[in-house]
Design goal:
The chain is mainly β and about 100 residues long. Helices cover about 10% and strands about 30% of the residues. The protein is built from one helix and seven strands; from the N terminus they run βββββββα. The strands form two sheets. It has a five-stranded antiparallel β-sheet with strand order 1-5-4-3-2, with no helix packed on it. β2 and β3 form a beta hairpin.
Length: about 100
C-alpha cells in the first residue's frame, strides 16, 4: 500500500462510519462501514496515521521516500524506481519497537 504519514492528528469527515480494527500488536486499521474502504492505519507507538495515497485529491507534489518489508516482496514485484529508503522486516520491527 502506498501511504502518506499524516502525523498523530487527522480530521475525518463522517466519523460515525469509521470503525477500528486492531490488526497487529503495533497498529490499528480504520475502515468505512458503508463501503469497506481502508481509510488509514495508526501506529500504536507514536499515534501516527498512515493514509492510502489513493484517498488524497492533490498528491502531485508527493514523492515516495520509504519502502517497507522489501525482503518480503514477491519475486515478480518490480521495485519502484524513485530513490527511497528501503527497510526489511527486521528494520521495520526495530523502528516501531524503538518508538514504543
Amino acid at each position: 500500500m502506498l501511504s502518506i504519514d499524516c502525523g498523530p492528528s487527522i480530521s475525518v469527515t463522517g466519523a460515525e462510519y469509521v470503525r477500528l480494527y486492531a490488526s497487529s500488536a503495533w497498529a490499528q486499521r480504520a475502515f468505512c462501514i458503508q463501503c469497506g474502504s481502508h481509510l488509514y492505519y495508526q501506529a500504536q507507538a507514536d499515534g501516527h496515521h498512515y493514509v492510502p495515497i489513493g484517498l488524497l485529491e492533490d498528491c502531485d507534489d508527493l514523492r515516495l521516500s520509504r519502502q517497507l518489508y522489501i525482503d518480503a516482496q514477491p519475486p515478480y514485484y518490480a521495485r519502484l524506481s524513485d530513490c527511497t529508503h528501503d527497510l526489511n522486516t527486521a528494520q521495520v520491527l526495530a523502528l516501531y519497537s524503538a518508538n514504543s
